[in-house]
Amino acid sequence: MRSLERRGAVFVRRSADAQRVVNAVPLGAAWVAEATGGTIATGDRSTEFAGVSIDTRTIQRGELFIAIRGERFDGAEFADAALKSGASGVVVPRGRRPANAAGAVVIEVDDATAALQALARAVRRASGSKVVAITGSAGKTTTKEVTGEFLASRYQVVRNRGNFNNHIGLPLSLIELRHRPEIAVVELGMNHAGEIRTLVRIAEPDVRVWTNVGEAHLGFFASVDAIADAKAEILESAAKTTVLVANADDERITARAPRFAGRVVTFGIGGAADVRATNVIDRGIEGMAADVVTPRGRVTIETPLVGRANLANVLAATAVALEFDVPLETISERAAGLRPAAHRGEVVELPSGATLIDDSYNANPTATKQSLDVLASARATRRVAVLGEMLELGDRSADLHADVGRAAAARVDLLFTVGGAPAQALAAAAVDAGMARDRVRHFASSDEAAGAVAAIVSRGDVVLVKGSRGVKTDRVVEHLKVGRG
User: What is the pTM assigned to this prediction?
Assistant: First the structure.
């Protein structure tokens, strides 16, 4: 495996002559105890664990079970079950030693969740891997996947799985750095102040990416500015050598970026930025194209990812890739082959002859209006939007839904809304903005909406499906894919 060294602000691979074979970071019992601030109560200090698990249903023989406590479960109650399933050791709160340890390693700690996080940080440091961490109100996963794709052209890269982006999922992902990949690309999620700060302290990222600020999780904050302040925790605990990749088109980000202790690299569309897109061509559901100007030169990028929001994600990933010395030509080649993650802007041809834009993974007002822009730019007999309620918007939910309804009225021919009172407000606002009442229908659930949508769409239609995960608009997607009316 090639190792990395830093030249100025750029990470590059050492020459082949400097390569050396490295072993995985050993998860020895004594080392784990030291890393977690724990005490070995029983078992052999020299035991090495095959991995780490917090779930007895999937634990593998030889792994270490960490008995975290959740809102609805107490992991310490499953320590015995973990050992019976083949775990070589357990980490439990002090005084919660399992009854039948039978010679297995038992490490007692003050707090099992904090121990998991401390172990992840220790592995991250021992691995020698470089870490890229991405946060923002929207686009984190797409930016993570695109960044990983660009970097994988030259490096061994790992990414955190799915939405493993919180105080539990991120540590589990970082512990896999024990296999010493060259670069890890991870996303950091949050819905309360202080959470990004915790994740930054665990991951200690070399490169931080801040995609945008929006209304996601507004129900937990006093304002969008308060969300921006919470996201700005990505700036903390940085060294002078740390790099921030920041969205120059987002005023809330540019207002906060100057406090960053390291070096700032910006990306944007049209305006002044280090990595900027010009001559943008929106091809609707066929993707985007633009000339991209960078400190390394100019390149034309074409991508099947739809919409300007995804173009911004590609620009952010380009800025990161350039920090790791990936050539512009390689970035352009990889961009042409990108595909969206599941339910995040996938374009699917349906049995009915209609075309589906499956953006059902999640939703917030800004992202939903961006998706409506994509729909509006599509060549179609009819433009159909299925919009699920956007959750966690707090007291402003009805107003924000109404704003989306007005945007939909100017962009779609048929509108289906799904959910409770806020979704009804979206439908009513669309009618007030000029949509005919017989072109707008509301359903309480996605299951109820699915059949009605499938029955009405036909060849030549383009259908957008988007909503918060809790509304389960993916059920409408699955109904459309099998062609049932």
Answer: 0.90
